[in-house]
Structure formats: C-alpha cells, structure tokens
Amino acid sequence: MPDSVDRKIIHVDMDAFFASVEQRDEPALRGKPVAVGHAAARGVVAAASYEARKFGVRSALPSVTALRRCPELVFVPPRFDVYKAVSRQIHAIFSDYTDLVQPLSLDEAYLDVTANRRGIETAWKTAREIRARILEETGLTASAGVSYNKFLAKLASDQRKPNGQFAVTPDMGAAWVESLPVSRFHGVGPVTAKKMAGLGIETGADLRDKTLAFLQQNLGSSAEWYYLIARGIDERPVNPDRERKSSGSETTFDRDLQEDLEIEAGVLRQADDVWNWCEKAQEFGRTVTVKVKYGDFQNITRSRTLPALVTTQEALRDASLALIRSVLPTEKGVRLVGVTVSNFDRSASTVREALPLFD
After folding, report:
1. Where along the chain is the active site annotated (predicted)?
2. Contacts for 268-272 with beta carbons within 8 Å, 24 or more apart?
3. Cα(219)–Cα(324) distance, rounded to whole angstroms?
4. Would you say domain 3-15+81-168 falls under CATH 3.30.70.270?
5. Is 318 flagged in the annotation as binding?
6. Do the domains at 17-78 and 246-348 have one common CATH topology?
7. How confident is the model at residue 89 (pLDDT cuts 50, 70, 90)?
8. Looking at domain 180-229, what is its CATH homologous superfamily?
9. Digit-coded pLDDT (tens) for 21-56
10. Higher pLDDT, 212 or 350
C-alpha cells in the first residue's frame, strides 16, 4: 500500500448550497422545488434544490427545459454576495481543525486532518463534528467523505447525500472502487465515460483489468491517472495554496445577436465583471481570451498573450474588444460571449505595470 494510506482526508460538500441558502432565508420556499437562476428564455439553472432534482432539474440546465420538467419550479435570482459570506463562515470552521484546507469552490473543500489538531479520536468523528457545527452556525447541512486520499474522500461524500457521511478505509478502498461505475469517478466526464464504454470499461473493475499500455494507447495523457485510481491510489496532497489559474465571465443573450455594437457591448460587460474580480483579488494576468458561441452552438475562442500584465480596466476592455473584432462582422447570430484572463504572474501581481495594447 502507498504511504498515503496513513493520511486522513475529509471531503466536505454542502448540500444543494445556493438553493439551500435561499430556502433557509425564505421559509416559504422550504419543501418546494427551487432553482437559483432566471426563468428567461435564455436563462440557465445555477443550482437546484433536492425537491427540484427529483424532477431531473440540475445545474446548467436551460431554464425552459427545467420548467418543462417541473412546472411548479420556483426561480430565485442568485445572491452571490450572500453565498460568499456563508462560504467564509464554513471555511472559518474548517480552520479550527486544520491548516490544510483546499477549497474547490464556495461549497466544497478537502481537509487533511492527519495532524489531529483538536485531539478527536477519529477522522470520522472529526467530520461529524464539523458537519454539526456547520448546521449550528449556518443552518445548512453538509455531507462528508472520509478516506486516506482525495479521490476516495470525494467519491465517499456523494455516497450518503444529503446530510450524511461515508468512510472508505484502506482495507476496503480498492475493492470499493471496483464496484463503482466509472462515470462517478472524478476526472471521467460524459465524453470519456462514453469512450471507455466503447472500450468495454464501465466499472472500476473493468478499468483495473486494463493494462497501463492499453490505457495509454486509447486514453492518452490521462491513462496513468485512470490506472492508479482504479486501484484506489491517489498521492495528491491537500494543497491549501493551490493557485487559481484564471478568472472568467460569460453571458447568454436573450436573443441571438448580429449587430457588431451589441456584441461588443456584451463583451465589455463580461470584461468589466472579470476586472472586478481581478482588482479585488489583486490577481493580474497576461493572457486574455474571448469566447463566442453562435446560434448553431458552434464555439470559437480568440486569445492573445500580452507583453505585460493587464493591470487596468481600460487595458482589459481594449484587449477584449480587439479580440471580438477579429471575428466581426458575423453572418451567424451570436448566442453567448465570454471573457477570461489567465497566465497570472504572482511575483508581479501587485506591481501596476503600464500595459501597451498590441505590438
């Protein structure tokens, strides 16, 4: 067994976080199918309550489809400032138990509690206490997975949702993985799961039966990861200093746009959203990317890496405009636009460099 079996990892995942916050704050929503998002024709569900999930309503589902599946669905506009504030409460609780906290999003994180700061008898009891404190201090429920590595802990946190926890011990890890469908594995998305099925791989046991050479030939650069997780092996540490690699924002228009000025205005709004994050976080990058989705759902991107950090709102706007103008005018309607800044330079992120536009 690898050395990592001595670690004690907890994956905490809030239950239907955004929707649960809305139900907590508005009693009339409790027990009802709730979607966080907008019911507009081009709206998308950001999150769904468990009552809504029974009807097949999930995040990223178009609002019109969600309403078709659940006519009683109640849409609530998102309040991200509130969700962030609650997330800070939850992470403050985590910090009482370990310094090794790796957030994955506002509503989930890995905790390495091997050092046992609180002197609690087991990691299982630690997870139970953390969940109890979250409920007491925020009024929200969380689920947890407990195991000896991150891969298994994340899988385990889904096992008893909502408001439950599950442990995968070193003596059961490999056999438990074999019993699961590969579609549940972190890092195996729908496209990869379909490809694996075509190779005769539908369960962890099927995956374990394949040689590393076979996986490399058919699944490329991720083959070694699949080979290891099929055996319950994941040596990745919980990394509290994991750096964010990009910041982006995108929007779907109410109708397909063809006028240059309307499309450019949409790009500028997304650039401003991204800039607000960059300025607040004091994170600045060199690469600007503009994404376009046409009415026929074709996606294209245009990127440019600049000679200096993008450290002003004007510079980000100018770079974004130059990129979108490279694909204008367009004969096809534009359904969605997005702007992303990446290639952050932490060593210089606090230096407000003057940025030339393009060479």
Report:
1. 108
2. 268/317, 268/320, 268/321, 270/320, 270/337, 270/338, 270/339, 271/313, 271/316, 271/317, 271/320, 271/339, 272/313, 272/317
3. 34
4. yes
5. no
6. no
7. very high
8. 5' to 3' exonuclease, C-terminal subdomain (1.10.150.20)
9. 999 999 999 999 999 998 887 788 989 999 999 999
10. 212
Residue 351 has pLDDT above 90, yes or no: no
Res. 9: pLDDT tops 90 = yes
Given this model, what pLDDT does residue 5 score?
60
Work out the widest C-alpha separation in the chain, in whole angstroms: 66
User: Which helix (H) or strand (E) is 235 found in, with range?
Assistant: none
- Return the CATH architecture of domain 17-78: 3-Layer(aba) Sandwich (3.40)
Where along the chain do its domains lie? 3-15+81-168, 17-78, 180-229, 246-348
206 in a known ligand binding site? no
- Give the pLDDT confidence score for residue 253 in this predicted structure: 86
Name, in order, each residue with C-beta under 8 angstroms of 212's C-beta and a sequence gap of 6 or more.
223, 224, 227
The topology (CATH level 3) of 246-348 is Dna Ligase; domain 1 (3.30.1490)
What pLDDT sits at residue 354? Answer: 34
Q: Which of 22, 108, 250, 264 is catalytic?
A: 108
